[in-house]
Design a protein that fits this description.
With about 270 residues, the chain is mainly β. The protein has a single domain, classed as Porin. It is about 10% helix and about 55% strand. It contains two helices and 15 strands. The strands form two sheets. The protein has a twelve-stranded antiparallel beta barrel. Strands 2-3 form a two-stranded antiparallel ribbon. Strand 8 and strand 9 form a beta hairpin. It is globular, with a radius of gyration of 19 Å.
């Protein structure tokens, strides 16, 4: 992705696919999401330390137990950041646009998914690598206590190493108020650490536990729209993540705090 036009073309293509799919298949769905974040933290790495907007659009084809989903996601920096990875040489604008495709299979006992992501970047100084791609697979056990899930991502272009994320969650549903969900995510670099690689590209300083993300959120729905405010407290463990992260709100380079809200519309 070089300019904003790429994102617009990708979005237009998706909407054309939606129309074709709805004509050919009965079980189709389309959704538009908008994430608002006080900062963008990706796998424990602070990409930008200021307010960002992250719109996305997706389309799905669903069967009895399986589904295909494709989408376009964008990262819009409202102002140039002064810390983190997202210092844009071209000022505010889209710093990243990603394209993804996923196939999922569900049973009463577990959920399985395979997918790919194309990452494209723009406006970051000193970065000659403007795109990369990952393959991933995930397994989720939603009916077990804490609904554990594990996802393995493998970068096949720039870094050529694996990143593993484990998530746990629990939802409290009071009778008289909105449901509140508590979560914990643990990231592990498995071949993406600079100290363990011969290649120039690396996402982390070393392999091992990169960060712990503790979160709380709730959902409020009205028709086809859902609002999901959340708060995240991230403990940064990787040396590189600590160097570019942390903030005054937590008083430490080893921890960061960010707030967000997601607006989801789907049908």
């Amino acid at each position: 992705m070089r300019k904003l036009g790429t994102s617009c073309r990708g979005t237009a293509v998706l909407f054309v696919l939606v129309l074709v799919a709805q004509t050919a298949v009965g079980d189709t769905s389309v959704g538009v999401d908008l994430d608002l974040r006080s900062r963008y933290v990706w796998r424990g790495l602070t990409v930008t330390d200021f307010f960002v907007m992250q719109p996305s659009v997706w389309v799905g084809l669903e069967g009895e137990r399986q589904a295909w989903t494709a989408g376009v996601w964008g990262h819009l920096e409202g102002t140039p950041s002064v810390a983190g990875l997202g210092v844009r040489s071209e000022g505010a604008g889209f710093g990243e646009v990603d394209y993804w495709l996923e196939w999922g299979w569900s049973t009463p006992a577990f959920e399985l998914a395979f997918g790919s992501i194309l990452y494209t970047y723009s406006g970051y100084p000193g970065d000659d690598q403007d795109r990369t791609a990952e393959l991933y697979t995930s397994v989720a056990l939603p009916d077990l206590p804490l609904a554990p899930s594990v996802t393995v991502f493998y970068d096949v272009v720039a870094v050529r190493g694996a990143y593993v994320e484990t998530e746990l969650s629990h939802t409290v549903r009071p009778d008289s108020s909105l449901p509140v969900s508590f979560g914990a995510a643990f990231g592990v670099s498995w071949g993406q650490g600079e100290s363990t690689r011969s290649l120039e590209s690396a996402n982390f300083a070393s392999d091992g536990l990169t960060h712990v993300d503790l979160s709380a959120s709730f959902e409020w729905s009205a028709g086809s729209a859902t609002l999901e405010p959340s708060v995240h407290y991230v403990v940064l463990l990787d040396e590189y993540a600590r160097a570019i992260g942390g903030d005054a709100a937590t008083g430490s380079q080893g921890r960061t705090l960010w707030f967000g809200a997601r607006l989801v519309w789907s049908r």
